[in-house]
Design goal:
18 helices, globular, binds NADPH dihydro-nicotinamide-adenine-dinucleotide phosphate, 5-stranded mixed β-sheet
């Protein structure tokens, strides 16, 4: 079947799942030259099989709030592809979650995980539960109820979840605790665990650090570095905070952070004690970014995003489709010359086109934010060995992995005739690895 027909079928069979359609369309568009070179993939129906998840689980998650009122949320786990390893991918708690979001994330995860060079398949999960404004006890009861169903479907050799939006150390702790109680087994079934009980050092930092390592590699190719550059970061959660820290370490100046209510602009840079303030605000008090503007007397734009400000580099690290076509024009007009995607699919296809037409250095999410899942893979390795490695050892491995992902993506773009197009390079390199494995393993 042609790639166009496959795409039409995906849209037909998955109505209304627009984020999933978008993710599939981008990959299919970039693998056209591969399919011409490899008719055996077409004959074996590799792409038809790839776009259909191996398994999709949807379940009821009932829980009781502090007032004794019963609520019912919906839980999801999409086990997309296990040709090169156990399903691996995070869990997202956000009111916008529905099956189309989980499928887009699970689909992208297949190629991202392949790029890391580690043995991990693709999966993703989540719920439309909103942890914002909930007490710790409510979050705990929700997580326990979520695990009361999920535990049947996961195992260290089958499917190993991690965190994502709305799921950090607190939520992973509650889910892991419930898994351990239900299974009576202490095993590496989650990554992003606390280092006190089986987690890897550097896992919390890995996505943000990896994003900056990848961006550094991309700049190095052009004989540039991050030193002295002004950086626009969106979001203020796990990825944004750690991208901020690594940018500061490498001499860059981060001037924006945001959340779903607005954006702050600090022309002096968010560094030193201000970083501690952000961590306390977001991870402990769970407050709004606006409070930063009040504390440090800087500009705050209610409902705004970072893309209207001047800068050199943009690191979108909040959510999908946060850079629209107009935003991309603004970034180009305001002098941004490089974009590194920390979030998953933060730029729309129209925005990516604008970047490419204007020769902006562009690091796509599947490659640039693969640091998180890479260290998750290293956490699984440590759990299997019942060992834990030092911070320096894991950080060194992360750096090497990000360097390799950059090199693989770059070399693949060159091989397929569009040197420097890392969207093409990352998609094709990830696809080739999974497609070959599926071919080897027969039609299953
Ligand atoms: P967090 O929950 O820690 O932080 C998310 C941040 O993004 C918050 O500041 C949040 O603001 C903001 N945000 C979320 N949704 C929206 C929205 N609809 N509009 C505007 N702002 C929004 O999540 P992470 O930092 O872990 O994840 C951020 C992105 O990175 C996601 O796309 C995720 O899939 C991706 N990613 C994460 C990895 C990880 O290891 N954690 C690995 C690879 C990718 P608010 O608090 O107001 O909601």
């Amino acid at each position: 079947m042609s790639l166009d027909k496959i795409y039409e079928k995906v849209v037909d069979r998955n109505p209304g799942e627009k984020e999933f359609h978008q993710a599939v369309e981008e990959v299919l568009d970039t693998i056209r030259p591969v399919m011409e070179k490899h008719p055996e993939f077409v004959e074996a129906g590799v792409v038809e099989r790839l776009v259909e998840p191996e398994r999709q689980i949807i379940f009821r998650v009932p829980w009781v709030d502090d007032q004794g009122v019963v609520h019912v949320n919906r839980g999801f786990r999409v086990q997309f592809n296990s040709a090169i390893g156990p399903y691996k991918g995070g869990i997202r708690f956000h009111p916008s979650v529905y099956i189309g979001i989980i499928k887009f994330l699970g689909f992208e995860q297949i190629f991202k995980n392949a790029l890391t060079g580690l043995a991990m398949g693709g999966g993703k999960g989540g719920s439309d539960f909103d942890p914002k404004g909930k007490s710790d006890d409510e979050v705990m009861r929700f997580c326990q109820s979520f695990m009361n169903e999920l535990f049947r479907h996961i195992h260290p050799d089958t499917d190993v979840p991690a965190g994502d939006i709305g799921v950090g150390g607190r939520e992973i702790g509650y889910m892991y605790g419930q898994y351990r109680k239900l299974k009576n087994r202490f095993e590496g079934v989650f990554t992003g665990k606390s280092p006190e009980w089986g987690g890897s050092l550097v896992r919390p930092e890995a996505t943000g650090f990896g994003l900056v390592y990848f961006t550094h590699e991309m700049l190095k190719k052009e004989n540039m570095d991050l030193n002295g550059k002004e950086v626009l970061v969106s979001g203020s959660g796990n990825v944004a905070q750690n991208a901020l820290k690594k940018c500061n370490e490498l001499g860059a100046k981060v001037v924006t952070l945001s959340d779903s209510t607005g954006v702050i602009y600090d022309p002096d840079g968010i560094s030193g004690n201000k970083v501690d303030y952000i961590e306390e605000l977001k991870n402990i008090r769970r407050g709004r970014i606006k409070e930063y503007a009040e504390e440090y007397d800087v500009e705050y734009v209610d409902g705004g995003n970072p893309w209207a400000f001047d800068g050199d580099i943009a690191l979108p690290s909040a959510t999908q489709n946060e850079i629209l076509e107009d935003d991309a024009h603004k970034l180009v007009d305001n002098g941004v010359f490089a974009v590194g995607e920390g979030a998953n699919m933060p730029s729309t296809p129209e925005a990516i086109k604008i970047f490419q037409q204007n020769d902006i250095l562009f690091a796509p999410a599947k490659a640039a934010n693969a640091g998180g899942v890479s260290v998750s893979g290293l956490e699984m390795a440590q759990n299997s060995q019942r060992m834990s490695w030092s911070f320096e050892e894991v950080d060194e491995k992360l750096k090497r992995i990000m360097k390799n992902i950059y090199r693989t993506s770059y070399e693949t773009s060159k091989k397929y005739g569009d040197e420097g197009n890392l969207v093409l390079g990352a998609n094709v390199a990830g696809f080739m690895k999974v497609a070959k494995a599926m071919l080897d393993q027969g039609v299953i």
